[in-house]
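Annotators were shown the component list below and the corresponding predicted structure, then asked to write short factual statements about the assembly.
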Amino acid sequence: MTAAAGYDDVVVTAPVTVPYQRYSTKGAHWFLGRAVAGLLDASGLPKSGIDGLCVSSFSLGPDSAVGLTQHLDVSLRWLDHIPMGGASGIVALRRAARAVQAGDASVVACIAGDANRVDSFRESTARFSLFSQDAVYPYGAGGPNVSFAFLTAYYMRTYGATAEDFGKLCVAQRSNALHYPHALFTTPLTLDAYLASRMIADPIRLFDCVMPCAGAEGFLVMRRAEAERLGLPYARLLGAIERHNPFPDDPIQYRGGWVLDRDALYAQAGVGPRDIDVLQTYDDYPVINIMQFEDLGFCDKGEGPGFVRRNSFEVGGSFPFNTCGGQLSVGQAGAAGGFLGIVEGLRQVTGATLGAQVDGARHALVSGFGMINYDRGLCSGAAILGAA
Amino acid sequence: MTGGVRRKNPILKTRQPTLPPALRSRVALGMTAGAAVGRLDLQQCEQCGTVQYPAREVCRSCLSGQLVWRPQDGLGTLLSETVSRASMELYFRERLPWRVGLVQLAAGPTVVAYVHAACAAAPADVRVEVALDRAGQAVLVAMPLDAAVTLAEDPRLHDMTCDPTHRKILVTDGKSEVGQAMVRAFAAAGASQVWVGHAEPWKQPPGFAALAELPQVTLVPLDVTDGQSVTELAGVIGGKVDIVVNTADHHRTYGIAGRRGVETAQAEMEVNYLGLLRLAQAFGPALRGRAADGDAGAVAWVNILSIFALANFPPHGTYSAAQAAALSLAQCLRAEMRPAGIRVVNVFPGPVDEPWNQLVLPPKIAPKGLADAVVKALKATVEDVYPDPVARDWLERWRADPKTLERELMAASPSSAG
Amino acid sequence: MTTDALTGFAAALAAGQIRIVDLTQTLTPDFPQIGLPPEMGQSRPFRLEEVSHYDERGPSWYWNNFSCGEHSGTHFDAPIHWITGRNLPNNATDTIPVADFVAPACVVDCSAESARDADYLLTVDRLTAWEAEHGRIPAGSWVLMRTDWSKRTDPAAYQNYDETGQHTPGPDVDAVRFLVDERGVIGFGTETIGTDAGQAAHFTPPYPCHSFMHGAGRYGLQCLANLDQLPPTGALIVAAPLKIRRGSGSPLRVLALIANGA
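Structure shown to annotators:
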């Protein structure tokens, strides 16, 4: 396989967060519309200054990105809709970057957001996918809790991870979140409190689960010259990968698609794991964080538990990770959960964090994971953002 | 009534039935056909032999569109499991916690399945069975390899069965040989009460008087051809019956030319078709209302039909037509009982060894064999019962090609191959 | 009857000088139906199915459909009912002369004998003994056999079946011939489910009352009630079957008119 071309001078800029709410009566169009407004506000661009749009949302139906163009009355020459959940941020970034690089668009707004009414989560999980509808949801395994319980139990049994290992990550993320103004969880979490939280689906505890909420995230993709013309702080896109349905013959998931693509990622970016100053993983269940540590090459497969025990994950720790608190402490605003890491990584390498800043952060690795279609997450992706 | 009979507190609201999620794609319903008769079928590719799950439109391996449902042994390994303690669905919230697992079948695919309490902790060897849940949909259950373990032994999975133990049964006609056998089978199966319907009280067929000596049995007047009789009985016991077993049957052995007029055909329709309709109208609503009435609530409706319902057996031509009508109505009943989770079990015996089948060549199923099959079906989770070799033979031929079976049946014997 | 006679009759009715007794059983689905061996054709029992009951099927009215065989409940047998009467003129419910629907009755009380013996048979001797007491049976009158069978409200006791068949009283062969040939009665009526005895299938000929009565163009009444309220003589019977074309019989209301003091 030939190596993918690099992204040249494509940059990422204008991180925007539409503040999260546990429940909201507003629809997805409201959150996505406010995200675009935030991008215009941050960039100083008029509506007409955006000629590309990339949208991710679970609750936009029956509309797609097309309907949103009229809803927001934006005229575009490039439009995409990325239905990849936790991987949608990375995939949107890749798509947008290539469009800008090829000249199909000049400025692409990447937005993700979801509504959350009181019964939204049940409705969306009931019909999340055909396989889920046919072969998971009927077993009371509504939502991904049970699926991740299987993976977590298997991982613990196979590699010796403990509840304390998962708890350590959750506690660190909460600690990071206490500095982040948009986090829905605002009180410290102790390991004891984590361990005492009720079982949801053994060995998954309440604090292993993200809290569904409403909200949106967004960023702009453009050439460096455009960012400089607008006077926007930016991050360079050093490399990005994605993979879908990576190991269909694994009887149960214990690894993700990053394993297949990480070498390409680091080669494209020209940096290695040791050069990463801050890591943003997709954290919908702690076991997936540990899998990403392994599969992105921070440690070997099966050494995740040891890696967790050796490191500290707070902003000031040995391995700064999920520095705004991640979805576990901020909340999961549907598809926006797949954008949270990019927006936070962008803020870290541009020195514009809303919470705690990792000193001298030059390289942020952002990882995405999504779509428990049946028994495993199918989509994975990762990107490395470099400081200007 | 005394010890062992649970009485509910009358000031408490009777719970309304809830169901597990019933939505399935059309292709996934293929598993239901096997589950209806208690058989685990999975999708298999006719081109490359790959067994796959969940159901797909094409083969996951070679992308062939020629997929068939084939019986599987279900052997596999429980890779991982959990105890689900939270759910957004009412049905599960009322029944938490559940044991659920991921099983790798020796045949290939990994399946999500309920895990029986008797299974060892993962990793463990298991045998995956299929069951019909209370929504009437096929679900997979990981069972221990010991074939003696039954679904009903797991208190969570027991809900999927219609176990007659401790339940109150109405056998609509206890006078026929089948009816009598049914009453005895339910008494032996531990039913707490068996109401035995009897029409035309001046007729006392052999064996009938002895039924009344069974401690669980109460004889009740019931003539399914008389709407008032059905309504009156429903008014007395309708709020108590947990399982209706409709044994009422009028069987004559005529085709069209062999019997002038419509009198016998009308009588067959009156009992087998309209009788079912009257019973369903009178007893159905009360059953639906008690579908969540504790551990011994209303659970099932059994129709003793005939394999002749599938295709006309000309020597018993008008009877076959009445059976076809009854089957069609039973499908309607199944649809109407489904929102309450009441299982409608249709039983399709081949010729029963009773006087109207005197001239039918063996094999014929004995009334006791038929009754035992009904009890067994209720203890399992099946909804279509083909209890004897002739019935299964017919079913196989009918499924293969109804037209071929029609031609074969132009010869006289139900087990004839033409 | 002259106009004056009818005026007198009406006046007597209005004055309560004439009592009317209902000899009819209520038509209900529970009332026993004649039973034949199961391979034979069967008379449908009386059935009532509601059409509407002030409800969505008919907001202001209540009515039913009913169905039954011609020989259900208290019913009339026409000569055409039996093969012996099949070729007679005016042998069906629609063609029988209406004058025959009103006729006097002789009531023979066999209740004591029937209580002792369910298979009791009415004989010529018993009939001549009755005549010795009450006078000769007039031609054109009904002979009604009182057995008090109608008081058996338990359907099983009414039908009185065992493994050898039905056990109910009725006339023997000679008694039927005597009534038809010697007395010229218009018909024979019973409280049981047939005009013949329960075991009459074993007589020679079988079912003599059906065979001879209908063969001679006479009628039958079955499942009568309240015969215990009738005098041995003097009652006038009104028994008009439904006008069914080529009907072999029909359920009907049977009334007995009795003058006070009779």
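Statements collected:
1. Chain A touches chain B at residues 121-122, 125-127, 130-131, 133-143, 145-146, 149-151, 153-154, 157, 198-204, 248, 251-252, 374-375 (CB under 8 Å).
2. The longest strand of chain A covers residues 10-21.
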